Amino acid sequence: MSHATADRYAWAQPGVEDLGGGVHRIPLPLPMEGLRAVNVYAIADPGGVDLIDAGIALVPAREQLAAGLGQIGYELGDIRNFFVTHIHVDHYSLAVELRRTFPSVISLGEQEHANLLATRELVNGNRNRFFGPDWLRRLGALDLVTELSAQDRRPPAVIDWEDPDHWLADGTDLDLRTRTLRAVHTPGHTQGHLVYHDAAAQIMFAGDHVLPHITPSIGFEAAGNRMALSDYLSSLARTLALPDARLLPAHGPVTSSTHERVHELLAHHDTRLGETLGAVQAGNATPFEVAKAIKWTRRHRAFAELDVFSQVQAVNETAAHLEVLAIRGELTRSVSADGADLYQLSTEEPWRP
Ligand SMILES: [Zn+2]
To answer: CA dihedral in degrees (34, 311, 91, 35; nearest 10)?
Structure first.
C-alpha cells in the first residue's frame, strides 16, 4: 500500500477517537471494497451510551464495536439508543441484530419506511430485483442485464429487516443526557436520510449525506426515487442554511466544516450537470448512452473501465442528473417504443432561477 493510500484510509484503522464532550468515533470494518469502514459515534455519559449508526451485522463489526466500547468503559449491553441515519445495511443492520440480545431502542427517519418495505419485498423475492430488468429498461441499459445476472450478488449480510422502534419526523429534538440532537431530514442519498445536528456543540453527525472524501451515491435505494438528485441538492442547501458545524461523517475522517464540504459537493454536481447536458447536446438520449459519453470517478475513467455493478450505479446517477436538467427546463423527457427514457434539448426557453 502506498503512503498516500495508507493516509487516505488512516481513519478506518480499528480503535477509538475521542472527539471531546463524551463523543467517540469507533470505525467498524465493512466487506465492501471502496468503503473500508463505517464510523459509529458513541455519545457516553455515566448511565450508558447512545450510538449514531450501528455498522453491519457481521461478526468482525460486532467484535470491534464491543472492543471500542470496552476501551471507553462500556459494553454492548450499555447501549440505550441507536439513532440511525438511513436504511443502508452498513448503518442499520447491526442495530437490529444487537436489539435481539440487549434491550435497546432503534430510531430511523420516517421517510425511510418505503425503503424498508421495498427491501423486505426484495429479500423475500416478491418483486423484481433492485436494478432488475424493469429498472434497467427505463435507463436504456438492458444490455447490462446478462452481465449483471452473471455476477454473484448475494447481499453482504443476511439480516431480518425489522422495523425500528421509532420513526423520527423531521425536526424532532432528541434530549440525550449530555446534549440535544435535532433530527434533520436530508433526502437524496436515500429518501429518508437524517442528519443529527447539535447546534450548541457545533457538530453534525452527517451519516452519508456529506462525506469528506467521496461524493455520496444518489438514490441507491430499494424503493427508487427519480427525484433523488433534486432532493439531494435541496438537502445540501438546507445544510448550508444551518449554522456551520464540525463534520462527523459515516465514512472518512472528522473535518472542521460542513459548509466547506457542501460547497465542494454543489460545485461537483454543477460540473456533472454541465457534462450531462453536453452529452445530450452531442446526441445521446438515454441515461445509458449519456453515462457512456462522460467520464467517471476522480480518475476520469471511461465507462467501459468500470465493473458492471459500478456501471449500473453510474447509469442510475446519470438518470438523476438528467431528471434535474428536465426539472430545470433544459431538457424534456419522453419514452421510447421499448420503454426507455429519452432526453432531448428543450425547445422552450429554459427556466432560470
Ligand atoms: Zn448509505
So the answer is: 10
Are 25 and 16 within 8 A, CB to CB? Answer: yes
Instruction: Say how far apart CA 350 and CA 113 lie, in whole Å.
Output: 35
**180 CA to centre of ligand 1 in angstroms:** 24
For residue 82, how far is its CA from the centre of ligand 1 (angstroms)?
A: 16
The CA distances from residue 9 to 1, 38, 56, 205, 253, in Å, are 10, 12, 19, 20, 9
Q: Give the least confident one: 57-61, 133-137, 327-331.
A: 133-137
pTM of full prediction above 0.85? yes
Using pLDDT thresholds of 50, 70 and 90, give the confidence band for residue 21: very high
Q: Rg of the Cα trace of the chain?
A: 21
Compute the distance from residue 334 Cα to the ligand 1 centre, in Å: 31
Cβ proximity of 29 and 39 under 8 Å: no
Burial category of 259 from C-beta neighbours within 10 Å (exposed 0-12, middle 13-18, buried 19 and up)? middle
Q: How far is the CA of 104 from the centre of ligand 1 (A)?
A: 22
